[in-house]
Amino acid sequence: MSNLFSQRHLLGIKDLNEADIRMVLETAKEFKEVINRPIKKVPSLRDITIANIFFENSTRTRISFELAEKRLSADTINFASSASSVSKGETLLDTVNNILSMKVDMVVMRHPAPGAPHFLSKRISANIVNAGDGTHEHPTQALLDAYSMQEQIGDLAGKNIAIIGDILHSRVALSNIFLLKKLGANVKVCGPSTLIPRHIHELGVEVSYNLIETLNWCHVANVLRIQLERQDIKFIPSLREYSMYYGIDKKLLDSLNKKIVLMHPGPINRGVELNSDAADSEHSIILQQVENGVAVRMAVLYILASQN
Length: 308
Ligand code: CP
What we know:
CATH topology of the largest domain: Rossmann fold
CATH architecture of the largest domain: 3-Layer(aba) Sandwich
Order of helices and strands: HEHEHEHEHEHEEHEHHEHH
Largest sheet: 5 strands, parallel
Number of domains: 2
CATH superfamily of the largest domain: Aspartate/ornithine carbamoyltransferase
Oligomer: single chain
Number of strands: 9
Shape: globular
Distance between the termini: 21 Å
Structural class: alpha/beta
Bound molecules: phosphoric acid mono(formamide)ester
């Protein structure tokens, strides 16, 4: 296996090969050990400046990247479009070039437009990390999800992973599918037919519309949020009906003939895709996912900076 990462940027899981993915997951193990020490900081990215540029809201990803950068001793600047000159009509490229002229080495960007980080990567020299581009990809979420799955069930080759919910609007689903297939997992997507892209089987995944059958099949259930903010038409009759057919509660988990690992990238719509008694149950590793996000993002930043 090569010990060189194949990419200058992390734009999407689609661009990575299996060795790249395994390199991030192995490196993250070392950083997880670091962030659990009494002194959580290492000098690996001293003198590197990273701009976190968020054109869309975020809690977990933004804080996790900032913490990862601080743990690596990088200098960080944070940009939120709502408090910037974007509201005066400044373009994405002008905004980023102005930030880069202040000697920034890496850009972590979230943007509502699919392909925005790819557009930038062709026009600027700094390394770019995609922190979520519209409904397209969320590569660091997929990497932290895989890391969290591996902690629970070991190597993912041959394991059954279900992705349940609003697959159509989810960048987490697409990045997870690319990654899990590259690691040899069996992937099934489950949800109402209106929320499953018509050609998704071409990515090598199975499709199910039956939640109980899917839960009985899987080792891990990664449950996704209904993204009402991305739905310009109604894809489901109501949240109440969605919850009746696809909502997961503790009683349902306890009725399965085995224990499964329950995941969710957040934010959770409690009472819609997950009831609180399931989200907070012994099946759930949702907060471990968040913890692992810092180590995985440290690994990504460290690996990209090492290529320069
Ligand atoms: N999982 C995730 O991307 O959460 P945020 O939108 O809070 O960053």
